[in-house]
Amino acid sequence: MFAVMGVTGQVGGAAARELLSRGAKVRAIVRSIDKGKNWQGEGCEVSVADVSDAASLKQAFMGTDGVFVMLPPIFDPSPGFTEARAFINALSTALREARPGRVVVLSTIGAHVERQNLLSQLHMLEAELTSLPIPTLFLRPAWFMENSSWDIEPAKTAGEMTSFLQPGDKEVPMVATRDVGLQAAQLLLTTWKGLGVVELEGPTRYTPDEIAATLSRLLDHEVRLKTLPRGQWESLFRSQGMKNPAPRIAMLDGFNDGWIDFEDRSAAVKGQTTLGMVLNSLVELRAQQSDPI
What is the DSSP string of 221-236? Predict the structure, then answer.
């Protein structure tokens, strides 16, 4: 039996489905019973737990051969990452008390970096779980290709996309969420001892220019790349409702300046899903949502 957090999201969902396809028993961890009904239909055991509640997480992890765990995304954290610290404490407590057979932790590229940025939440998570008395692997995926979902609408309607990844011809490590889920499932089905790190990216690196060019082809009209000057980022993010944009800006600086990358690029595992495949799926999904009923 393997317990999987985040099954209603893209990565956790892909991991759970891959485990099921390989004949493994899966316990889907959800925040409410309603969110688990579809997974019950797919043959999963369902456990209701909240990432802030160590007791419910412990019950979800008990009696399993392995668990796939993650933090909920926090894009606008409070100063000092107080929300993440509470989640990390609950998760750590639950794992130490439940003692599953092994743990695969969804982390991130750049989790080893000491310099504070939005990804520091995962740096903190790794630091806390490093001392678990359980075989533990940190899965560090690259920038998600699905982040381009925000580009589809302006590319379709205005023929442009705004990129915070700059300059336009700079290659960025990216990966499809499906490949992250597949890798997580593969790791859970593998036995190991002690502590380890697996870094994961797509079959090749891509540039913002390539994203725009691919969207141009898929939408059958020109999509222009618009790079917003860094000096305008804070005012834009605050206008969108962010209260503490500094960590997000620092993260983008890290990708653009190169200090956020893999700890060992030469050892990174390569996924199979290309950027073109992901963008095509995103464009098709947007078209379906636009179709009249």
Answer: S--EEEE--GGGHHHH
Token reading at 157: 């309607």
For residue 155, tell me if it sits in a domain. Answer: no
User: What contacts 281, CB < 8 A, 6 or more positions away?
Assistant: none
pLDDT one-digit tens code per residue, 74-85: 999 999 999 999
Model pLDDT for residues 176-198, shown as the tens digit of each residue: 999 999 999 999 999 999 999 99
Q: Is residue 191 part of a domain?
A: yes
Q: What is the CATH number of the domain that holds 40?
A: 3.40.50.720
pLDDT over 90 at 114, yes or no: yes
Q: What is the pLDDT of residues 121-152, one digit of tens each?
A: 999 999 999 999 999 999 999 999 999 999 99
Do residues 229 and 82 make contact, with C-beta atoms less than 8 angstroms apart?
no
Q: What is the domain extent for residue 25?
A: 2-144+176-200+264-272
Residue 76 falls within a domain, yes or no? yes
Task: For residue 22, name the pLDDT band (cuts at 50, 70, 90).
Answer: very high
What percent helix, strand, coil does the chain show, rounded to 5? 45, 15, 40
Question: Above pLDDT 70, what percent of the chain?
Answer: 99
CA distances from 29 to 22, 40, 46, 57, 281 (A): 19, 11, 6, 9, 26
Q: What's the start-to-end Cα distance of the chain, in Å?
A: 41
Residue 241 lies in a domain: no
Q: How many structural domains compose the chain? A: 1
b/e map 105-123, b = 16+ CB within 10 Å: bbbbbbbbbeeebbbbbbb
* Half-sphere exposure at residue 7, Cβ-oriented, CA atoms within 13 angstroms: 34
SS3 (DSSP) at 255: helix
Cα–Cα separations (whole angstroms), residue 44 to 37, 47, 57, 135: 9, 9, 17, 24
